[in-house]
Design a protein that fits this description.
Layout lengths: L5 H17 L8 E6 L1 H12 L3 E7 L4 H7 L9 H17 L2 E3 L5 E3 L4 E2 L6 H6 L3 H13 L9 E2 L3 H4 L15 E6 L5 H10 L6 E6 L6 H4 L1 H18 L2
Parallel strand pairs: 1-2, 2-7, 7-8
Antiparallel strand pairs: 3-4, 5-6
Helix pairs in contact: 1-2
């Protein structure tokens, strides 16, 4: 549980296309993709090779590999090798089956060592300095919490995550591409970087949602409306 390997997520998208193509009434020549947050990064990766996808869109794209490797807003570049060593050590500990201390909140016996946040107090949320994580904790742990979802992932997963990047070979995307992000999103730099590298796209559109932060583009009506209207226009134009 909580193993986070990029190739699994990309395969999930291939599988979604497999299923949709067989669904009664679906026109297999008019399949588009929309990826939100981390799903946006994996959608970019899947669309590089899966040409059954005829138009590609992302909202508030989060490049999971880049952030796990470099840290959010490139804050962890100086500790990359140290964290890769920790990931390798965690895998060794998993295989050894010994008692592992994960952090101050979790202790497991013979189970994988985890990274991430298991739980968080309101005070800790309020003190979180970045919009992405502060609003993300509020969204995923409070207002839109799911009982089966956590922020945890196995530390050994970093062996795969830190060597993966949504923008590697992004020039292979030759479908129409729409990328959307909030003007106030502290993650917007990831959309900007990916968009600049997607030089092979048939058409490119960068749509900025005025006033929106990363998390607000998920749920705040005025920002959702901007995104939906743009998506309706984009897919209507390219999936005729």
């Amino acid at each position: 549980r909580h193993t986070d390997k990029p190739q699994f997520r990309t395969e999930d998208i291939y599988g979604m296309v497999d299923f949709i193509m067989q669904y009664p009434g679906v026109d297999a020549a008019r399949i588009g993709s929309l990826g939100i947050c981390g799903g946006g990064g994996y959608t970019l990766k899947a669309s590089q090779s899966d040409k059954r996808i005829k138009a590609v869109a992302t909202l508030s794209m989060f490049n999971s590999g880049q952030v796990r490797r470099n840290g959010f807003q490139n804050s962890g570049i100086n500790t990359i090798q140290e964290r890769l060593q920790q990931a390798a050590n965690a895998r060794a500990q998993e295989r050894a089956g010994g008692k592992i201390k994960v952090d101050a909140r979790i202790e497991t016996g013979g189970k994988p060592i985890y990274s991430g946040v298991a739980n968080i107090t309101d005070e800790e949320i309020a003190k979180t300095p970045t919009d992405l994580y502060r609003e993300g904790y509020e969204y995923y742990y409070r207002t839109h919490a799911h009982p089966a979802s956590t922020f945890l992932y196995t530390t050994s997963s970093l062996m795969d995550l830190m060597t993966w990047d949504a923008t590697d070979q992004i020039e292979l995307i030759n479908q129409p591409l729409l990328m959307m992000a909030g003007s106030k999103a502290d993650t917007k730099y990831m959309t900007d970087e990916a968009f600049a590298k997607a030089t092979g796209a048939k058409t490119q559109e960068l749509f900025v949602i005025d006033g929106g932060t990363h998390i607000q583009t998920y749920w705040k009506a005025e920002y959702v409306a901007q995104a939906v209207n743009k998506l309706t226009d984009f897919f209507g134009k390219h999936l005729k």
